[in-house]
Amino acid sequence: MKKFASALTAAALTIGAANTSSAGQVEVLHWWTSGGEAASINVLKDLMKKEGHTWKDFAVAGGAGESAMTVLKSRAISGNPPAGAQIKGPTIQEWGDLGFLTNLDDVAKAGQWDQVLPTVVSDTMKHDGHYVAAPVNVHRVNWMWSNPEIFRKAGATIPTSWKQFLVEAEKIKAAGFTPLAHGGQAWQDATLFEAIALEKGANFYNSAFVDLSDKTLRSEDMIDVFRTFRAVRDYVDAGFSGRDWNIATSMVINGEAAMQIMGDWAKGEFTAANKRAGVDYLCSPAPGTHDTYTFNIDSIAMFKIKNKDNQAAQKDLARLILEPEFQETFNLNKGSIPARLNMPRDKFDSCAHSSMDAFVATSAANTLLPSMAHGMSTPAMAQGAIYDVVTNFFNSPSMTPEKAVDVLARAVKSSL
Amino acid sequence: MITKNAPRFTLADWLPKLVMAPTVVVTLVCMYGYMIWTGVLSLTNSRMLPSYDFVGLSQYERLFNNDRWLVALANLGLFGGLFIGICLCLGVILAIFLDQKIRNEGAIRTIYLYPMAISFIVTGTAWKWLLNPTNGLEKMMIDLGFEQFTFDWLVNPDKVVYCLVIAAVWQASGFIMALFLAGLRGVDGDLIKAAQLDGAGTFTTYRRIVLPSLKPVFFSALVILAHIAIKSFDLVAALTNGGPGYSSDLPANFMYAHTFTRSQIGLGSASAIVMLGCVLAILIPYLYSELRGQRHD
Amino acid sequence: MTNVSLSTRPQKSMVATSLRIALYTVLLSVAALYLLPFAIMLITSLKDVEEIRTGTLLSLPSTLDFSAWGKAWSSACTGSTCDGIAPFFTNSFQIVVPAVIISTVLGALNGYVLSMWKFRGSEIFFAALLIGCFIPFQVILLPMARTLGWLGIANTTSGLVFVHVVYGIAFTTLFFRNFYQAIPSELVKAARLDGAGFFTIFRRIILPLSTPIIVVTIIWQFTQIWNDFLFGVAFSGFDTQPVTVALNNLVNTSFGGKEYNVDMAAAIMAALPTLIVYVLAGKYFVRGLTAGAVKG
Questions:
Q1: Distance of alpha carbon A188 from alpha carbon A178, whole angstroms
Q2: Can you give the residue ranges of every domain in chain B?
Q3: Which residue in the set B109, B121, B276 is minimally distant from C282, CB to CB?
Q4: C152: which chain A residues are within 8 Å (Cβ-Cβ)?
Q5: In chain A, where does the domain assigned CATH 3.40.190.10 lie?
Q6: Which residues 253-282 on chain C approach chain A with CB closer than 8 angstroms?
Q7: Which residue range forms the structural domain that includes residue C100?
Q8: Class of domain A3-138+297-355
Q9: Average of per-residue pLDDT values in chain C
Q10: A28-62 burial by CB neighbour count: b if 16+ within 10 A, else e?
Q11: Maximum separation of any 2 CA atoms in chain C, in Å
């Protein structure tokens, strides 16, 4: 029955923005609270102020947005959603299906979003062919960050395949360093797992994590992915469990660990520690994934609100997000690349340049793929099912790879 | 019963009920109404937000085929049993010790009691450090010269539940101690004197007279502890977030994750109903004795 | 009240003394263990970032550095605003004070009715209320959000007060009812024969006896509501977030390196009001429990 959803929508339309009285306020729910993110959001705040609007910052930190999603659901269900909220990927479609999101087509048309955004980005921002969200950046997830000093001391070279990774990791371990800095949280386990699976190629990846094909999930290749995943487990240190990603990054920065597989938000940590790309630390695609690119696009989806002034402010917000000024500053802080094409790139560092080039190249070669670990490829329920199996496998040495694929295939099927 | 002798004032008849009315309404709507609503949702395939496509009991079937849920339930059994048992023992012992005309009793009691005042949102980081093998207790002991000392329960999937028990006992045992202390202070002194005049030793006096008279306190404490155990959520969220893997998940965390982050409201609701079932299994005997006890008054 | 005491029995003084020493040793070492997490927080809050990185958990700071405290209070960032956690204390107090008062008053009246003015079904209702205490609060988030929206108090302080009162009543009623159960009903009976009404009896007879249980209830409710995170995060708006939510934001906000000293200082500050209540009123808490709250 759609009655409930439509009742909610009606509620959203009528009581929406009940507690906003003065003109032109936007309330934005987000969990950009770490690294340069908060500073980046301030840029947007200032731009909005210049336009004469008031910015109501609604930050809910923690747990990769888990608390923030709870808040958003509570707000939406009470008929009082914020003007904008940080949601992304298939989740935008789910909110759109329930009729909560507002139409941004006029802003998009004026700003020529269709021309300045790559198709893969603009598709995610649309629901039913209409723009409902504004993208702030594109993250590349399949990065490897390494400490060249440790590699030199251990006589190792940067691996370009997972097979080689195991060889080099052994040398690093022998030299007394932790080969892989890793944090044992479900999403980090999944990020690592995804990078290993990516080596099997774009077709395999798409079939497994986008189409969720039972056959692929049970395939010999998938068993092999789990096998490698288990082998890599030997090269993390004892205290990895529950560690935050940025603590893992600081292990690479401080010369305790040689490598970390993590998206380009990790760069913010290096920058904050005054380390230079290419000198103090190296960025390279995760082993065996040169020709592929898993993306994670952050965006702000706009909700239906009632107050006319606030609607105007909301439209201005959408417009400003796409403006080069914001795209540049935000992404310089956050480590990602602008969602807009053809931006001046002189202020960005070599890692960002490499990400920009790879984005264009993989886009042409159809190897530009949505990240499973970051909720871009599947709805939350399938992603959750994969998380459970992956993280459980990583932490239970007794589970065989053959058993893992069986559990994985069944978990994914039952989640749908 | 007083009401039988009540003068025939209509006011006196309806005033008590009127006073209770807001509570009754709120309880019916916000507790039972929501429970029923959750029960209804557990029969639907609700995803991100509630919907009403009924699918029978299939969410329950999925729930009990879900390995993570089974782990969470087993953890609750282990965690709950240990937590309740240790808190009760520790509470009684500390209360008896503290009841020996201790100097500075007030200060010591406050120290035992203070963890109850703080949430794990506040102490979570400190606990994580303390239990973490690379910078916590293990490192401290090794620095002190105990080279062989290992304490890696937090990162060991088979042992992590014991970490939860340690932190939970730390938080609740002082409160339980206070309950028992209050109970001890309420024990009839004449009985004890009589026993001592009969030549009963200290140990015998406690075993024969004091402890049996604490029975109602045991019962209250048991219910309070069971309540804390079943609702434990912050504890896991702050200490392990369910990890390593999902080996330290508890039902409340399972339910929250599935309802809010995983867009599986149907499954989450089913798990909530099972949790409520567990609660009732504990409460009904308690209520039975409570209400039956009243009749003898 | 009479203490049951090991020392009331005549003992050989040697044995007694060594027993006392053992007793104190046990009590004090347990106390030290209980203090450990808090000690770590306090020590860490006084170190600088470099010392935290290099030292161990319990190594004392080389110099006392209170700058983390100042920063946590007024200039640390919680999301994109950097005013420390000070502004959020107002929100918390605006939520806690009315919620504690309302739930205590309602609890007292309910307890009074349920023990002195029993009516048909009141026992069953009491049982129903008790069961209500045990609902996992995660369950009620969505329907409560809808109710709050419907009442027009979603994401406001009043909304949060409402939620805390609703889910606090069960406990407060339980406390008062059990306490009043122990008051001899003859007192009330006599007063009613003298023609005293419902509220007169409550004010003249019941209330003056209630101090211990009022203290217990207030301490309990204050702690529960102050420490609440779940309702605070789910039902607050951008300008009504309580201090626990702000603390969580602060701890998760970092620029480059994590400033654990600031995190810890903020955590201690957020816990200070409940700690003060326990330290100052702890005596009355145990006294209140003694006076009957725990007797099933």
A1: 17
A2: 61-295
A3: B109
A4: 15, 18
A5: 3-138+297-355, 143-295+365-415
A6: 253-258
A7: 86-293
A8: alpha beta
A9: 85
A10: bbbbbbbbbbbbbbbbbbebbeeeebbbbbbbbbb
A11: 76
- Separation of alpha carbons B20 and C113, rounded Å: 7
The model scores a pTM over 0.90: no
Q: Two tokens at C123?
A: 């026992």
Identify all chain C residues contacting A79, using CB atoms and an 8 Å cutoff: 149-150, 154
Whether C165 and C20 map to the same domain: the answer is no
Q: Is residue C81 part of a domain?
A: no
Tens digit of each residue's pLDDT (9 = 90 or more) over C199-256:
899 998 899 989 888 998 999 899 999 999 889 988 988 888 999 988 888 887 766 5
Same-domain check for residues C61 and C100: no
Q: Nearest CA to CA, how far is B292 from chain C (Å)?
A: 11
> Which residues, in sequence order, are bridge partners of residue B54?
B44
ipTM of the complex: 0.84
Q: Is C152 on the interface with A (CB under 8 A)?
A: yes
pLDDT tens digit sequence for C176-210: 988 888 888 888 888 888 888 888 999 988 999 89
Q: C touches which chains (3+ CB pairs under 8 A)?
A: A, B
Q: Does C66 touch chain B (CB under 8 A)?
A: no
User: How many Å lie between the alpha carbon of A115 and the closest alpha carbon of chain B?
Assistant: 33
Q: Within this chain, do residues C53 and C196 fall inside the same structural domain, yes or no?
A: no
Question: Domain B61-295 in CATH: superfamily?
Answer: MetI-like (1.10.3720.10)
Question: Which one of B22, B37, B183 has the shortest CB-CB distance to C106?
Answer: B22
Of A30, A32, A272, the CB nearest to C256: A272
Six-digit token string for A258: 């040689």
Same domain, C129 and C241: yes
> Model confidence over A352-403: pLDDT tens digits?
999 999 999 999 999 999 999 998 998 888 999 999 999 999 998 889 999 9
Is A77 in Cβ contact with C145 (below 8 Å)?
yes
Angle value at C-alpha A411, between A408 and A414, nearest 5 degrees: 150
First to last CA, chain C: 19
Same domain, C133 and C45: no
Residue among A81, A83, A26, A82 at smallest CA distance from A49? A26
Beta bridge partners of A29: A58, A85
Was domain A143-295+365-415 assigned CATH 3.40.1110.10? no
Check B261 against A238: CB less than 8 A apart. Answer: no
The CA angle B3-B9-B10, to the nearest 5 degrees, is 95
> A128 has which bridge partners?
none
C110 vs A: CB within 8 A: no
Tokens 């251990």 correspond to A154
Expressed in angstroms, the distance from the first to the final Cα of chain B is 10
Give the distance from residue B290's alpha carbon to the nearest chain A alpha carbon, in angstroms: 37
Distance of CA B207 to the CA centre of its chain: 27
Instruction: Tell me the sheet residues that pair with A219.
Output: none
- Our CA-based measurement puts residue A265 at a distance from the nearest CA of chain C, in whole angstroms, of 11
Does A73 contact B48 at a Cβ distance shorter than 8 Å? yes
Smallest Cβ distance to C58: which of B140, B179, B227? B140
